[in-house]
Design goal:
- By secondary structure, the chain is of the alpha/beta class.
- The protein has a single domain, classed as Luciferase-like domain (TIM Barrel, Alpha-Beta Barrel).
- Helices cover 44% and strands 15% of the residues.
- The protein has twelve helices and twelve strands.
- Strands 1, 2, 3, 4, 5, 8, 9, 10, 11 and 12 form a ten-stranded parallel sheet that branches. The protein has a two-stranded antiparallel ribbon with strand order 6-7.
- Strand 8, helix 6 and strand 9 form a beta-alpha-beta unit.
- Helix 3 crosses helix 5.
- The radius of gyration is 20 Å and the shape is globular.
- The two termini are 22 Å apart.
- InterPro entries: Bact_Lucif_Oxidored (IPR050766), LLM_FMN-dep_put (IPR023934), Luciferase-like_dom (IPR011251), Luciferase-like_sf (IPR036661).
- Pfam families: Bac_luciferase.
- It comes from Actinomadura craniellae.
- GO terms for molecular function: monooxygenase activity; oxidoreductase activity, acting on paired donors, with incorporation or reduction of molecular oxygen.
Length: 358
């Protein structure tokens, strides 16, 4: 099972002192977090894609390419690649290039994002969100698997005898996760292609995501990719830890109360009860994360959001130390002991290459 962190790259004031980092500071902090993730033994670093303030990660391949040059083992991923507003030809070429530079340590999470105005900024209509996701990914899927592509669709100019370059490393496209928080059509799409499904269930109650994941698993089996419990599932989560749970709650509360994504909604206690957010001791994080398997079945990737809401970089790095030293080793052992032998691990370039050779 893979464990890692994802970032949305928000530039948010620290509510305890009012200081807002510069864009340069935030971008460099994200790099530092990725390097720390590898240092403490995590498997994955994933960045979102946003094109509006207060977010900075508008060019994931630039950031991930830089991180690739400074790491050796970390899988580099996106927490969202906007399949709706990016040209699939550009996605195919950008991420194949990154794949070569990173020696295969690359995968992607396709999504539609959560910012409506991004559609007209890139010449699209939000009312076409689902059709764009379906058509653009169908083309991307072919561009990575066919050397010469003839194609015509609804949303971009036709292609005639087109070859995307460079070709995927070793002829193996990056593994794709389809991310969704609400759309059964995306779960269906992931199942159809035999790709992964990532349910970033950080805001809504678990029952909603249980239905989405169950749909994906049933359709994965329907399309002949394996049994339902062999489907490739990823989950998101949020944690804040201190040795004593009371200290964690006291320290995190002002960040929760003032964060744009939290403030004005349910209380910290209500949000902790209804969502994966865990604010407490390392053992509480372990206990709650282990319940995810009870709700969603055996799964392959767990990503935590650690660096949001204006938390200082120093605090985030402390959190990563706790995560790597006290939480992940226990979770690895427990999840491995519970996972049946026929349930696969998360696909990597090496495992996909070995499967093809076998």
């Amino acid at each position: 099972m893979q464990f890692g962190v994802f970032t949305v790259g928000d530039v948010t004031p620290d509510p305890t002192n009012g200081r807002t980092p510069t864009e340069a500071e935030r971008i460099k902090a994200m790099v530092t977090i990725a390097l720390k993730a590898e240092e403490v033994g995590l498997d994955v670093f994933a960045t979102g894609e946003h094109h509006n303030p207060p977010f900075v990660p508008s060019s994931p391949t630039t950031m991930l390419g830089y991180i690739a040059a400074r790491t050796e083992r970390l899988v580099l991923s996106t927490a969202t690649t906007l399949i709706t507003t990016n040209d699939p030809v550009k996605i195919a070429e950008d991420y194949a290039m990154l794949q070569h530079l990173a020696d295969g340590r690359v995968d992607l999470m396709m999504g539609r994002g959560n910012t409506g105005p991004v559609y007209p900024w890139f010449g699209q209509d939000i009312r076409n969100g689902i059709p764009l996701a379906v058509e653009n990914y169908a083309l991307l899927h072919r561009l990575w698997r066919e050397d010469v592509v003839d194609w015509e669709g609804r949303f971009r100019t036709p292609l005639q005898s087109f070859t995307a370059t460079p070709r995927p490393l070793d002829g193996i496209p990056p593994f794709v996760w389809h991310g969704s928080i609400r759309s059964p059509e995306i779960a269906e799409q992931a199942a159809y292609y035999g790709d992964g499904f990532f349910a970033n269930h950080i805001f809504w109650p678990k029952e909603h995501f249980m239905r989405l994941i169950e749909l994906y698993r049933r359709r994965f089996e329907h399309y002949g990719h394996g049994s339902a419990d062999q489907a490739i599932v990823g989950l998101g989560g949020q944690v804040f830890m201190r040795k004593n749970s009371q200290d964690a709650v006291k320290e995190f509360r002002p960040y929760f109360d003032n964060a744009p994504v939290y403030g004005g909604g349910p209380s910290l206690e209500e949000f902790t009860e209804q969502t994966p957010l865990t604010v407490g001791s390392p053992q509480q994080v372990i206990d709650k994360t282990l319940t995810f398997r009870q709700h969603f079945g055996d799964y392959q990737r767990q990503l935590f959001l650690m660096d949001h809401a204006g938390l200082p970089l120093k605090t985030v790095l402390e959190q990563l130390d706790i995560l790597g030293e006290e939480v992940i080793p226990v979770l690895r052992k427990e999840f491995a002991a519970l996972r049946p032998a026929h349930v696969p691990e998360a696909p990597t370039h090496a495992s996909l290459r070995a499967a093809r050779a076998g």
